[in-house]
């Protein structure tokens, strides 16, 4: 069954989330280097994704031209192959130990050639680039392959493809095949370049265990307009999904002598936390950083469970506790903590050492005084934006002091805000103490990044998780013990079956849940599993061995961060051997790209490593650089003509509309609420500025919240926050739901048999967030709210005066004077069109 992903495709029961790839391929002078074919083929087999990008170009000029192949891929992915076919001759990329490739790299740099092929280009992406000279009429085929194990994040896997061919392509096609033996529980797609004209080029088919997504636009569909040869295909394409789960020992899958064990049971209760927030308030945090930190802390406080305990330590040159001990997350304590967080001010130096030791002493004191409830989880969350400048400033000494103080009793999570902090320092600090590090990028969504990180650790479900397999069945198992397991994540263990292993592979997963030990048992038939993976054409065979190698390398590289010098060398040797054996470009290997004689003889591709202060920089590539919120000039219109707070299409009328302005409001308002539709719309109206500072739409099915402010739109699903800037094209298909935004910045939320709700940031006179409504005949008889009342028994009373421009509107027993007035219609964006409507003031 194939379903066009159009506005009418809201009913497809799909949702997808897994894989992260970004493509920006061959570019050259227009009409010279012509990309006549561009294909992206991604096969996801049991979370392991293999993506093949193939670009075919021809030089249509009368002289030699340079063709540039550019592509973005996930930071967590490993390149496994690259080749160029020129005049029938294949020029491969050879993967070598980094030291062995260094001589070629240095020689190329000495010649002034651009030797580095891979660089970081975004939060999650790396850019691969190769150029080659192409003779007149000659053809070149570029092919790049990379692999990645998809990680479950807040309940979903994600695949991101950035498609930017920069020209019309005769044969443009993306195919994504997903095979999950556990069964696909939901699937969704999202794009920043899809429009209604392109919707029919996207098809999705799905059954219980398989999904196929294809995007294949024609030349005419790619064109911006009939007169323009520019392509509209320029942006991101995202696929999200999850798999079916039960309260069990997980799923063991077996292929070609290797196994992978996925563990993420549902139905476990959340364990209470004892969390200490250690917040940097040094002078470098001044301005937007501290403002966003305060905003995030206030939201995080609201998410604390009443069973949790918490405290704050803020630090600059001196560390200060909010309370002398941990306090319960009661309503009163949370309210007081919100006031404290609101008033954190930034100034002074950075004393990380004293702040961290104060946090451990606080937990030790609580432990001695038996204030930590049995079965609760102690966590320390550090947020800093710079290196230590006060007190102990030697990073190695701080790391040792903190590790000695924690003593393996607590988990430490480190957040580095921006690029003035050594990420390598924070990463080791966290990994030494059973946690992880994360960089928070300075952007308009920094507060959301902080909130999302907290959501990852907000719900611990098990501690001391250990996987046990029969000694006569398996060998070479990846990491099989984990300190913590959080809701929305997944624990993955892979290994090799022994040659004479039994036909049934059994496993036990041990852990602690609150105050009791818990054990899950599961088993899998080797013969049945081998058969399930043997025949399908839509998976890439032999993937499980490569999955095992990929996971082993990733874990060895992580262990190297906190290992001693002697152990580090052993781990490096193991990781290097696997990288070379399985042809992975990792931080320990390089790929040497060969070229035809007479051109640069070789270029070297090395995997960037995020450490130090310069581990990440934005590079502007075509249209791919960071973009600021647009500030289009406002067309000047007479001040007497303003846009109303809302324009309401009246029930039963085709042309006449009601303009409603708000004169009296306090706090958040209930604008619409329809329990039968499962929709609620709230907003905050500012009387002084005569505008909404925010509007929020909440849907019950799917469970979705859309929060619109002048800065951006934030969509929240299952604790996941995604921010979108106004006027960024968006086309998101979910089960029974379609969310789109056009270049004018009009965000539309559509669902079958429901009211269609629109949002936009109006920049004209009376600027602010505005609301649009369509299909209002779908409102039920139970609709209510400030604007909802106008869809409940509205009655126009006869005019007592001769003035036809004045009437009275009766709404639920209340009479509202209505006046015929000129207003600005904001519904198509700035500058607006003047029209006449019945104006009511509330």
TrEMBL record:
Residues 1-28 form the signal peptide. The keyword Glycoprotein applies. The keyword Secreted applies. One of its GO terms (molecular function) is serine-type endopeptidase inhibitor activity. InterPro entries: ITI_HC_C, ITIH, VIT, VWF_A, vWFA_dom_sf. Residues 19-148 form the VIT domain. Residues 274-457 form the VWFA domain. Keywords: Glycoprotein, Protease inhibitor, Secreted, Serine protease inhibitor, Signal. Gene3D superfamilies: von Willebrand factor, type A domain. It is found in: Secreted. PROSITE patterns: VIT, VWFA. One of its GO terms (cellular component) is extracellular region. GO terms for biological process: acute-phase response; hyaluronan metabolic process. PANTHER family: INTER-ALPHA-TRYPSIN INHIBITOR HEAVY CHAIN FAMILY MEMBER, INTER-ALPHA-TRYPSIN INHIBITOR HEAVY CHAIN H4. Belongs to the ITIH family. This is Inter-alpha-trypsin inhibitor heavy chain 4.
């Amino acid at each position: 069954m194939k379903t066009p992903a159009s506005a009418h495709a809201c009913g497809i029961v799909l949702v997808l989330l897994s894989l992260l790839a970004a493509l920006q391929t061959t570019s050259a002078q227009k009409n010279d280097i012509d990309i006549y074919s561009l294909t992206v083929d991604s096969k996801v087999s049991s979370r392991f994704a293999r993506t093949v990008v193939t670009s075919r170009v021809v030089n249509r000029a009368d002289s030699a031209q340079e063709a540039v192949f550019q592509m973005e891929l996930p930071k967590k992915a490993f390149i496994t192959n690259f080749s160029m076919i020129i005049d029938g001759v294949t020029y491969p990329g050879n993967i070598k130990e980094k030291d062995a490739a260094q001589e070629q790299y240095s020689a190329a740099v000495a010649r002034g050639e651009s030797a580095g092929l891979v660089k970081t280009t975004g939060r999650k992406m790396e850019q691969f680039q190769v150029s080659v000279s192409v003779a007149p009429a000659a053809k070149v085929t570029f092919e790049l392959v990379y692999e990645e194990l998809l990680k479950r994040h807040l309940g979903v896997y994600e695949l991101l493809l950035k498609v930017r061919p920069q020209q019309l392509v005769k044969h443009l096609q993306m195919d994504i095949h997903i095979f999950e033996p556990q069964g696909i529980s939901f699937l969704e797609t999202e794009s920043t370049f899809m429009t209604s004209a392109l919707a029919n080029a996207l098809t999705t088919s799905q059954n219980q265990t398989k999904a196929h997504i294809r995007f294949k636009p024609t030349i005419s569909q790619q064109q911006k307009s009939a007169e323009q040869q520019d392509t509209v295909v320029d942006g991101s394409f995202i696929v999200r999904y999850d798999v079916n789960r039960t309260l069990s020992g997980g799923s063991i899958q077996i292929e070609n002598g290797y196994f992978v064990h996925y563990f993420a049971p549902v139905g476990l209760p959340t364990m209470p936390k004892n969390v200490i927030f250690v917040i940097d308030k040094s002078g470098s945090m001044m301005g937007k950083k501290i403002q966003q930190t305060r905003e995030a802390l206030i939201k995080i406080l609201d998410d604390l469970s009443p069973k949790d305990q918490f405290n704050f330590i803020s630090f600059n040159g001196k560390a200060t506790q909010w309370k002398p001990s941990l306090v319960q997350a009661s309503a009163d304590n949370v309210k007081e903590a919100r006031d404290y967080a609101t008033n954190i001010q930034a100034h002074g130096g950075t004393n990380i050492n004293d702040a961290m030791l104060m946090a451990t002493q606080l937990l030790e004191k609580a432990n001695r005084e038996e204030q930590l409830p049995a079965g609760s989880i102690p966590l320390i969350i550090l947020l800093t934006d710079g290196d230590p400048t006060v007190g102990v400033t030697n990073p190695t000494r701080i790391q040792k002091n903190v590790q000695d103080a924690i003593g393996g009793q607590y988990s430490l999570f480190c957040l580095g805000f921006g690029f003035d902090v050594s990420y390598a320092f924070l990463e080791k600090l966290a990994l030494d103490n059973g946690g992880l590090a994360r960089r928070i990028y300075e952007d308009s969504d920094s507060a959301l990044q902080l909130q999302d990180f907290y959501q990852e650790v907000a719900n611990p479900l098990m501690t001391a998780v250990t996987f046990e397999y029969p000694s006569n069945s398996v060998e070479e198992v990846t990491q099989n013990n984990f300190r913590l397991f959080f809701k929305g994540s997944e624990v993955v263990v892979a290994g090799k079956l022994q040659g004479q292993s039994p036909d049934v592979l059994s496993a036990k997963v041990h852990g602690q849940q609150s105050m009791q030990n818990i054990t899950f048992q599961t088993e899998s038939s080797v013969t049945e599993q081998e058969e399930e993976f043997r025949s399908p054409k839509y998976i890439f065979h032999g993937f499980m061995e490569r999955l095992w190698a990929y996971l082993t390398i990733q874990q060895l590289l992580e262990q190297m961060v906190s290992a001693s010098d002697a152990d580090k060398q052993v781990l490096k040797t193991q990781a290097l051997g696997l990288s070379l054996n399985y042809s992975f470009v990792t931080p320990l290997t390089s790929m040497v790209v060969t070229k035809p004689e007479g051109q640069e003889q070789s270029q070297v591709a090395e995997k960037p490593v995020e450490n130090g202060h310069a581990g990440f920089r934005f590079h502007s590539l075509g249209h791919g650089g960071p973009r600021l919120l647009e500030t289009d000039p406002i067309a000047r219109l007479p001040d007497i003509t303003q846009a109303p707070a809302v324009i309401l299409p009246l029930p039963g009328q085709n042309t006449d509309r009601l303009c409603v302005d708000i004169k009296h409001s306090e706090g958040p308002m209930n604008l619409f609420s329809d329990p039968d539709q499962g929709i609620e719309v709230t907003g905050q109206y500012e009387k002084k500025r005569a505008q909404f500072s925010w509007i929020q739409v909440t849907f019950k099915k799917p469970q979705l919240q859309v929060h619109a402010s002048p800065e951006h739109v934030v969509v929240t699903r299952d604790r996941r926050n995604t921010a979108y800037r106004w006027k960024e094209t968006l086309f998101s298909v979910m089960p029974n739901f379609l969310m789109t935004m056009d270049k004018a910045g009009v965000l539309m939320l559509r669902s079958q048999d429901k009211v269609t709700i629109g949002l936009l940031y109006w920049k004209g006179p009376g600027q602010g967030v505005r609301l649009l409504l369509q299909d209002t005949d779908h409102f039920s008889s139970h609709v209510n709210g400030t604007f909802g009342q106008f869809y409940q028994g509205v009655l126009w009373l006869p005019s007592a005066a001769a003035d036809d421009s004045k009437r009275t509107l009766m709404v639920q027993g209340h009479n509202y004077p209505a006046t015929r007035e000129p207003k600005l219609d904001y519904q198509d964006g700035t500058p607006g069109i003047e029209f006449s409507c019945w104006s009511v003031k509330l």
